[in-house]
Amino acid sequence: MDIRQKRADLIKQLIATIEDAERPGLKDTPMRVAKMYEEIFRGYSAEKPKITTFDNGQDGIITDQLITDTGDFYSHCEHHMVPFFGEYYFAYIPDQTIVGISKISRLVDWYSAKLQVQERLTQQIVDDLEETLKPLGIMLVMKGRHLCKEMRGTKKHNAPMITSYMTGIFKNDSDARNEFLKLIDLK
Questions:
Q1: Closest by alpha carbon to 51, among 106, 92, 95, 122?
Q2: Closest C-alpha among 106, 22, 88, 93 to residue 63
Q3: Residue 108 near residue 125 (C-beta atoms within 8 A)
Q4: Would you say 64 and 100 are in contact if contact means Cβ atoms under 8 Å apart?
Q5: What is the pLDDT of residues 52-76, one digit of tens each?
Q6: Active site residues
């Protein structure tokens, strides 16, 4: 039996504890969910994206300024297996190496496509990029809505969780940190 069918069978068993799993509207749900899991948890099976880097100054321009990237992320809480999602704000100040900026979002997507907690997600992304780029500093802020908090439990809406992780100049220099926070309007 392949893994997709095994997942579908388990999902059907779960549905059967809630409702009639053979009801016409639910009959094909187990396989749809099994296929969806392959997509949303692709971080377990897909290769980590290659982080393309360039020597700083190879094109005749030395980059020593703040470089930023923003985007969305989608993940699943490892405690309740429900989604959490939001925006990320990334900055770094290069030293010898710069990164292809699209690689940031690919790395965020890859780490997000696993069962996660937002704190670990934030740190994993920064640690990976720190090791690859060896920049003067990195800062990542993630602002997420957690359905485990909004649709169950405390049922609190409009109360995002904000995590940040920083290295180098962002950790040691409040001016650099504040410049970035001002740019993303969180100061």
A1: 106
A2: 93
A3: yes
A4: no
A5: 999 988 877 777 788 889 999 999 9
A6: 77-80, 118, 146, 148
pLDDT digits (tens, 9 = 90+) for 8-40: 999 999 999 999 999 999 999 999 999 999 999
Q: Is 28 helix (H, G, I), strand (E, B) or coil?
A: coil
The Cα 68–Cα 183 span in angstroms is: 9
Domain borders along the chain are 3-40, 53-183
Residues in the chain: 187
Round to the nearest angstrom and report the end-to-end CA distance of the chain: 54
Cα–Cα dist 105/51, whole Å: 11
Task: Provide CATH code, domain 53-183.
Answer: 3.30.1130.10
DSSP string for 71-116: EEEEEEETTT--EEEEEEEEEEE-SSEEE-THHHHHHHHHHHSSEE
SS3 of residue 166 by DSSP: strand
